[in-house]
Amino acid sequence: MDQYLTVNVVTPDGLVYDHHAAIVVARTTAGELGILPKHAPIIVPLTIDEVRVKRTDSDTHVDWIAVNGGIMEVRDNVVSIVADSAERERDIDVSRAERAKQRAERQIAEAKEKEDTNELKRATVALHRAINRIKVSKHS
């Protein structure tokens, strides 16, 4: 039988994704990482970015998942991603993400005006998450 990966994405709200894959590509804090079957065991921190999963059922079937950081563990052909939040491209509410982007941009402007570095950091993360969700939604 051909080798494949089992991919699970889990958040505090439960299982977001569970499929077989030929390859998984995710952005770690050290850069982009591609995982193929028989990959050595590894645990890495993820950034706010998209995770690409090339499914085994078709050469052209790719799933995209917006992941807001977290960790990825690879062991025995199982890729487990644990994140604060994650959404598949088809599940993203684009208008909600656009509103979150606008809200974060306003908060950034206000934080810069007040020179509030903590609020600026929080708003910048919120903006990055919203932009990531919008970007991933465009793959559907």
TrEMBL record:
Coiled coil: 94-121
InterPro entries for this protein: ATP_F1_dsu/esu_C_sf, ATP_synth_F1_dsu/esu, ATP_synth_F1_dsu/esu_N, ATP_synth_F1_esu_C, ATPsynth_dsu/esu_N
Cross-referenced HAMAP family: ATP_synth_epsil_bac
Keywords annotated in UniProt: ATP synthesis, Cell membrane, CF(1), Coiled coil, Hydrogen ion transport, Ion transport, Membrane, Transport
Protein's name according to its UniProt entry: ATP synthase epsilon chain
Database matches in Pfam families: ATP-synt_DE, ATP-synt_DE_N
Family: Belongs to the ATPase epsilon chain family.
Functional summary from the UniProt entry: Produces ATP from ADP in the presence of a proton gradient across the membrane.
Domain ATP synthase F1 complex delta/epsilon subunit N-terminal per the UniProt entry, residue ranges: 5-86
Gene: atpC
Subcellular compartments: Cell membrane
The UniProt record lists the keyword Zinc: no
